[in-house]
Amino acid sequence: MRFLQGNISARFKVIYGVFFLIIISSTVWLSYLSSKGGMEDQLRRTNTALLHLSQQKIEMMLHEIDTSTINFIQEPDVELFLNGRYASDELRLNYFRILNTRFKTLMFTNSNISSFYLYSLANKSLLTDVTYSDESSFYDMAWHDAYVSMKGYGEWLDTRKVTEVSSGLQIEKNMITLVRTYPLISLPQFRKGAIIVNVAESTLSNLIQDVDQQRAGQTLVINNQGMIISSQNKEHLFHSFSTIPGAPEISEFKDNGYITTHSKSGSYTTFYLTSSYNGWKYISIVPDPEMNRPLMIVRNLLLVVTAGMFFLAIVLVFAVSNYTFRPLELFFHSVAGKKSVRTGDLTYMEQFFKQMISDNESLQKQMNDSLPALKWRLIMSLLMGDKTNYNRMKPYFHTLGIDLYHKQFIVLIIELDRIQENHTPRDVYLFTYAISNVADELIAGVCKGTSVELTDGRVTVIMSFESEDSQGNQIQALQVADLVKNYVGVHFKQTVTIGVGSPQSNLEGIQISYEEALNALKYKLIMGDNTVVSIDDIAGSNYNEKFYRITALIDSVVNLIRETDKNKLRSQLDKIFGEVVAGNVPPELIKQMCIQMIMKSIKVISDKGLEIKEFLDPKENIYDRIESCVKVAELKSYMSDFLHQLIVRTEEKRLSKGHHDTIEQVLAYLEQHYMDSDLSLNLLAAQFELSVPYLSKLFKETTETNFMDCLIQIRMEKSKELLLGSKLKVNTIAESVGYNNVQSFIRIFKKYTGLTPGEFRENLKKGEDDKNSESVSG
């Protein structure tokens, strides 16, 4: 008010400035409100149209695959396989070659098909583009329950994990599966087989991504139960839709439309469409700030226009004021002199400068308080490879107090051991902070560098060197790591494990050294706590040969499970884990080996006709339990206890079973007629006047194996006797034990013994020659 009373020019400027501000602001605001509703409606229609486009792309692809599948299953060669009608093994092999060509043609013409198989109900067998397998030994039978319970003629199954076997490796993929029955239109009791087509879930998410690039938000595909079956974020798969931030309740969905929800994390609009083809729901969740960004742009543009118009109005006010009132005001001052000047006229200037000084001090304080956060963010950018130009980053280093050489860099990662066992979250935070400070001090005595608290319990250190002596710099980094480890042990009474990366010659290499340090740190599982692990300690090893050797030992463990030999089991486990530690096998492969060992053992138990549910604790997740192990000794103890328990429970189950005379007669019949090429379970059932299902179940419960495995075992043992005791040719031996096709005999013999018949005979001959030479020398 004192300012307004100071002079006429000031009052004119303030009054007319406020007037123009009100007029201009009101005009622009009313324009914005009048157009806001129409723009919001247009944005919703656009998001719905883009979601509909994603649905059309996906369902067009699914329809195309379904049509190709229907055409393929009607081919005569396919029908012949599904009906299981082949006059001889040679004819079946010939048709398999033809089917293999058709398989490749179908997958070539439709690149969206990841894999598919034909399932013959008559033969209980499956055929793929690379293999022919019995139902009991096929790697993927998770679709079978849906096939048995399916009411219609075809169904798209939700996303599932499929572990495919390719070139001896197990590859886990997320698949969406089409199950189409054969014949195409038939009641469940008249089905003769099916075709199963797997489509990678990533194919759907890629189609969604092509559309999502045009807008904000994320698009998902869910089933009727609300489980996510496709998403660009693979961590969402197999989880409930309700876990997505801003997701509404499934019960609120109708056929098509949108729902706006408000939560602590913000406001979201969910657009949804329901497919009439497979019942899936296509859902797009868009944060309202992102969806309304065009509105924000319009609003900001109007604000700029308002500011421009107000600035122009103020310029005009000042111009008119200076032109009209300034001469009059100068006249009054010249006449009245100093008497017209009031002491309070310029008080506002003093207040302005005081405020400016206060704001500057506050800004400086905020800058100092934010330096640690800015430093953490910059170092994380270096570790992630986002910042790679040293000259461009040098000013930022100087501002944040980071001093680095530019010749060579090495990254260390320091991890506090046994965080969950002995420390509260506050203790972990304090130890992490202290270790970071210790690392800074110890680095300063060797080179230049910096450290940052990566997470609670983990510190990342970047060391930089003036020279390019890689070997010398690596030695210095290892010395610093040892100093840190010893200092923490002496002064903090704690232990740390430190991973050390390799020297890199530029900022871009910091990311490489960081990833190497992370990999080295994983070897804590093998080397234990309170160790320094360099990338040089683990690099260059040939893991393949060792892992194949360990895989062979795993098979021996499985055989011991089959034989229920507890004593040999423990010694074999000692041998396996001894080779793991001695061979410096990566931790990921060790855990994969353990999971594979458990899965194979479980399959052995299942093959014996025993229910695996009786052996497993439903409250314990095997995968999580193995992942939680931090030492090889802990992993070995868990595996030993688990496998030992399998044997104990198997023996208990075996003792509870009775003896059956019929199976003894069947086994005796097999010993006498194993050479008959047409010997089958159906023939045995007819011979002993039993039903096939009953005989199969009786066989499995009594012998703890199935008919085919037992027959193969008898034939292979007879083959080994003939290879050892005669000079007959391989094809003659194959016919003698019931195989008309010598290639089938060789393949089964190698699978059973690990050697071809020729290699088996050569090994026997070599062994006899060695014995003869030893007896002669003796």
TrEMBL record:
InterPro entries: CdaR_GGDEF, Homeodomain-like_sf, HTH_AraC, HTH_AraC-typ_CS, Tscrpt_reg_AraC-type_HTH
Source superkingdom: Bacteria
Pfam name, any one: GGDEF_2
The keyword Zinc-finger belongs to this UniProt entry's keyword annotation: no
PROSITE patterns xrefs: HTH_ARAC_FAMILY_1 (PS00041), HTH_ARAC_FAMILY_2 (PS01124)
SMART domains: HTH_ARAC
Transmembrane segments: 14-35, 301-325
Keyword terms: DNA-binding, Membrane, Transcription, Transcription regulation, Transmembrane, Transmembrane helix
Domain HTH araC/xylS-type positions: 664-763
Coiled-coil region: none
Gene3D superfamilies per record: Homeodomain-like (1.10.10.60), PAS domain (3.30.450.20)
Keyword ATP-binding: no
Protein name in the entry: Helix-turn-helix domain-containing protein
